[in-house]
Amino acid sequence: MKKVFIALSLFLLSAGSLAAQNVNKIDPPFWYAGMKNPDLQLMVYGKDIAGSTVSVNYPGVNLSSTVRLESNNYLLVYLSLDKDVKPGKFDLTFTQGKKKQVKEYEIKARDKKPCERMGFDASDALYLLMPDRFANGNPDNDQIAGLSPYKVDRDDPNARHGGDLAGIENHLDYFTDLGVTALWFTPVLENNMEGGSYHGYATTDYYKVDPRFGTNEEYKSLIAKAHSKGIKMVMDMIFNHCGFEHPWIKDMPSKDWFNNPDHENNFVQTSYALPPMVDPYASKQDYFLMDEGWFVKSMPDLNQRNPHVYRYLVQNSFWWIEYSAIDGIRMDTYPYADYTAMSNWMKELNDEYPNYNVVGETWVTEPAYTAWWQKDSKLSAPLNSNLKSVMDFSFYDKINVAKDENTAHWGAGLNRIYNNFVYDFLYPNPEMVLAFYENHDTDRFLKEGQDLDKLKQAVAILLTTRRIPQLYYGTEVMMNGVKHKSDGYVRKDFPGGWADDSQNAFTAASRTDIQNQCYNFYRTVLNWRKGNDVIAKGDMVQFAPQYGVYVYARQLEGKTVLVMLNGTDAEVNLPLNYYKEILEGVKQGKDIITNKTVTLGQELKMAAREVLIIEM
């Protein structure tokens, strides 16, 4: 009996020792050969894993260092990869005393040369959608066991509704018919948050697609199928914060992993006031609240000044580019994260992928603020954000005011749009600025109305001016909504995306007459725009509005597109002599919207709110 007791004790001691160094997870799950930066950070998760020593034996892979954090349940392993390291699998050996655990790790071959990864640009038209609200292609993944409590209830605008990657894949032909060339999904990574976090902005696993949307493999497959149809994919990422249910909050790796980590006793929320970043007179307090305050209590603020946090986030962005072949990144809450860290990230990414593109959300409506953030801006010198694309919130703001005004006097109506483009002198690269008239965080352009004429003007400007255009799902079939009710009211389900929907707006036969008018307008302009170098690369000449009509031209290599918009509620007889520098010697052109010839004589009669896009 005594021998049995001793044997049992030794067994339990041995089992306990093994458990004490159990490796639960390694981020990233694998890596790629041939990256410019030879350093690789592995974040190892496991009970008391920090007590382990690590060894590796593979040609071209060297152990640089191990870093133990304040929590014993994490270990950072830094490897150095030779530039000619061969793809393959090797063992990582974790040792505590006499006990060892071996985990297999893999270095994979890259699918493309980094210079071959082409980002989005002004030749593209981006279509933003929320996966949870677009289409439900796989009802079996609506309810996933083991996740934090949530409900699927389409009658609740703030609950999950069941949309997923399969639903999007089922409608790829819809996007090609519409004429968009790139899709931007709101974040697809795991949001294992109580209530469901349908919007995706509270990440709980940076290397895993949320299972209610699908799997990593399904995301990768969807992108490949989109590529086969000429559609690019833009991934929404968040470096500023994660979700409150992330393991890093439950078991904080170190006190400086987050800004203001004592959230239970001293919660610090951001001010949401972004000007202190550029304000030459900013107080330290204003800057602190903007930069280090938490976005909300459920979104802990990551400290990118911590070199380990920084490296984790940078590697994550590179990993998704290599693994899934995304064609671009939209970075959420860009100015809220540490400026130096974000600038360094963009420099690393631009060095690795010179033809790639990232757009940062910079929500201030002053053009000078937005221009300050663009790569090589003289406004921020000697600082350089290295961020190629910024978001034109000035355009969004002005067009949503202008739509409800008559262009009758200086400063009102389409004069606002004219003035918006006047300030393009501030931007190093205006053609790399992303413009929009609505998105998932704003009222829809139509609000609670159905004014198609005003929408047509906004679409025409967005798709013909010197910008990267971004559209928002459903407005092409007259979806509307306002935020004061709830964010969910501007994020309604696309009609026809669920099997029991009473209408299927994906098909012309099921759309109403006004929905088809709207869809056909989008479709006509988008498909004409596709591959049109005059719009993607041409110069721009604009004229101050005359008689309430705003006119501008796009020109390239002898080709001209003339855009004319009547910004009034009345018919206008517009004298054309004012535009002789563009029209001299030109007697007619073709309106691409109606496919009819437009005579360009002494004057042109334009109906109220009429739009003309004339090829000459």
How would you briefly describe this protein structure?
The protein starts with a helix and ends with a strand. It is 25% helix and 22% strand.
Topology:
Elements: H1 2-20, E1 25-27, E2 31-32, E3 39-45, E4 53-56, E5 61-68, E6 74-81, E7 88-96, E8 99-108, E9 126-129, H2 131-134, H3 165-169, H4 172-178, E10 182-185, E11 189-190, E12 205-209, H5 216-228, E13 232-237, H6 247-250, H7 284-292, H8 307-324, E14 328-331, H9 339-352, E15 358-360, H10 367-373, E16 389-390, H11 393-402, H12 415-422, E17 434-435, H13 452-464, E18 468-472, H14 513-529, H15 533-537, E19 539-546, E20 549-556, E21 559-566, E22 572-575, H16 580-583, E23 588-591, E24 596-599, E25 603-606, E26 611-615
Parallel strand pairs: 2-8, 9-10, 9-18, 10-13, 13-14, 14-15, 15-16, 17-18
Antiparallel strand pairs: 1-3, 3-6, 4-7, 5-6, 7-8, 11-12, 19-20, 20-21, 21-26, 22-25, 23-24, 23-26
Description:
The chain has 616 residues and is an alpha/beta fold. It has 16 helices and 26 strands. It has an eight-stranded parallel sheet. Helix 11 (393-402) packs antiparallel against helix 12. The longest helix is centred in the N-terminal third of the chain and has 19 residues, at 2-20. It is globular and about 95 Å long. Residues 1-19 have low confidence and may be disordered.
Number of beta strands:
26
Structural class per helix/strand content?
Answer: alpha/beta
* Binned strand content: 15-25%
Helical amount among residues, as a percent range? Answer: 25-40%
Estimate the global geometry from the Cα principal axes: globular
List low-pLDDT spans.
1-19
Total number of helical segments? Answer: 16
